[in-house]
Amino acid sequence: MASLQRISSGTYYILFRFGGNKYKRSLKTQDGKKAQALKARLEEAVHLINGGRLAVADSDVRFQGLA
Known about the structure:
Elements lengths: L2 E4 L5 E7 L2 E6 L5 H19 L17
Antiparallel strand pairs: 1-2, 2-3
């Protein structure tokens, strides 16, 4: 499960764990609805990966829109 954090500038960050590692990435938006949509997208991708329905190379743990 991921969580959102809004810093004082208004920019949203997403915090999540994947593959035993913690990640914190800027969503590069100040729009709360867009941040929620990106969070849902990330959670769905992680769900698909964990269920074996989406493959990701070990060296490529970057998610589009979160790098």
